[in-house]
Amino acid sequence: MSKEATVYAIDLGSTMGECHSGRVESDLDYGMRYIYDKMATTMSSTRTTLNTGVIGFRTDDTDNPLGDEGYENISVLQPLGLMAMTQFNELKEKIKPSKTESGDAISAIVVAIHMIEKFTMLKSGKPASFTRRIILLTDGQGRIDDENLGDIASRINEMGIELTVMGVDFDDLDFGFKEEDKSLVKKGNEDLLKDFVEKCNKGVIGTAAEAIESLSIPKVHVPKPYSPFEGRLCLGDPEKYPETAMYINVKRFSKTKVAKPVSASSFVVRVSSGEVSTQSSHTLPVDVEMVDAPSTDLSGVKTARTYKIHDPSHPLAVNGKRDVDRDELARGYEYGRTAVHIAESDENVTNFETIKSFSIIGFIPFDKVWLSTITRSLTDSYKYQKYFTMGESCITIAQQVDDKSRLAFSSLVNALAELESYAVARIVAKDGKEPQILLLTPSIEPDLEALVDVPLPFAEDIRMYRFPPLDRVITASGATLDKHRYLPSDELDTAMSEYVNSMDLSTFGQDDEGQPTEYMPIEETYSPIVHRINQAIRQRAIYGGPIGESADVLKKWSEPPAELVAQSTSQLKKLMTAADVRKVPPKVKGKRNRREIITPLSGLDVDALLLGNKPKKISKENVIPDFKQMLIEPETDEVIVDAVNQMSDIIRNLVKDATGDHGFDQAKEDVRVMREHMIEYEMPNLYNNFIRDLKKRISKGQLGENRREFWIKLRIAKLGLIDDSIVPVADVSPEEATEFYSLTSDLPTRSRER
Predict the structure, then answer these.
(1) pLDDT (tens digit, 9 = 90+) per residue, 363-374?
(2) Regarding the domain with residue range 3-216, which homologous superfamily does it belong to in the CATH classification?
(3) What are the two backbone dihedrals, phi and then psi, of residue 402, each rounded to the nearest 5 degrees?
(4) Which sign does the torsion angle of CA 211, 212, 215, 217 carry?
């Protein structure tokens, strides 16, 4: 496991306390979103090899190992070392804008280099094996000394340091950000830092907005390679038939493994100094909030188990039961309603004795994949189906230090590929472990030749169920009917096929060149359970308080894309016509002399009440539900227009009155709901007129100053114009919709009030 030494150099100058580009938080708080998240990720890993240090420059004081001369207003806030929540909370108190503008960013990098060099040096004077990083956060408003930049860059390259410069509101054409009315000082500092980073072999510079936006994309944890088997892969029995059998020294690694969310641990709050509640975590009377409590107020919970038997005659019995020691227990197996006792000395008879092995049983062609279980003869076999796969896959490679095995293994893999065949093998990972049957397929890449395997079922693992056929009807007399009212017609088959093709996700996405590509690639399909709990823990650990909404990327696959649904509307209508889909009439109310129909206890027809009392006005407290109810079976187009107008007024007021992300997030969600419904009703002009008016008001400052961040949120969420590729009746082209996102208006800058 590699060691890492990361130093964060943070600009704490007075200008970092100002707010720019329509934000309502200071530049320092804005940039620290990324750094705090990185620190929290480091702490959550609990790796003792991850070391973190923090330097502040443009600080009121000077406190660094290089002294005062040339390194004024630079302070070490956190020495390099392990960071725990205690140090993290202390650090947060120090991360505040100073009252000075003095302090050099390049000098801070030199101090960081010194810290890393000293920390990663062995006693022998040689550098240890470390991954070295420096991450610089600045707004580029302070004075930067441009002397000896080449020597400093050479030292960075010599030590193999990865330098990342994150500038608040730095121009980045690739990301699509350009700050208007940039000062000459900041412009010059940006150019200087870019030239400096280009001299570093592992240097990267970018705008803070891009780094912060990347936080919403989950980071996939790449686990350390795990080898469940290392030994011989045999073809035949080398012990019985040494002349004809062969073996290859191989190593098997996990290929896929289910990612599980982190589990919570049980704690209790200390009752008083030196005392801890003795209750079990399973019997706590109320839930205890763990995160907000100081770590010193928590104590781990240890579980204890007691064993009791029914023995009313025993003198120590309580309520007819007495305790027994664990040593008095004996193992038994249920046999019907009887317990069969097997002593410890005889327990080996219940185990199937196995010896560590990995042997090939045989080979089968790709086009005739047959599975023969070890419980049946080779002639009595099943055809292999994809659902036979029993678990996680592994990959087998030859031992890298054995040239003979590498040559033999390469021959085996290439032979399977050329003959288009699989191998069936039996494996026992270690002595005494249960055997598995594997299906191995060849995998050939430019730098790797391997066998990828999946476990196969035994006969007892397969559950066979019989259901009536879908393509024919068998009558009670045994006759087979191909035409029946329960069978789909050719017209219905064609309509269903066209609808399925119209909902194809494999070509719905677009690559960088605008060409059709996979919409839902596996590498971009993240587990919402795993990453949501990580996001919640990280946010609560850093900021405390309420936890925000899940990232959009985690909710992306919760429903089909609205554009694809709109495109397939015509095919869906054809399918409904072919299938004769009709609205089910409401149930007839019970009449006299007819069996009573079961009704709710309240006797109310809820659906009729909801439709009969649709709101005519959208309330601010219940915006989205009221909007959706108004659009349920609208009688005329005027109802839709009225609903859109009311929603538009509410959105504009939310943006105007917003004092933070909460107001912006609510307004963005309202915009998203309106856009989806206008796509569904094929009335794009209503939405397009609204979004054009909203952009105009934002650019002119009619909704208040500094509303650029809300427009950035709409751009990131892709809530722009509805073009004719989404709804054919729209009067906007995809190119016009893309250009519409640009907002080039001059935005004012203000200082945060202190």
Answers:
(1) 988 876 544 443
(2) von Willebrand factor, type A domain (3.40.50.410)
(3) -115, 100
(4) negative
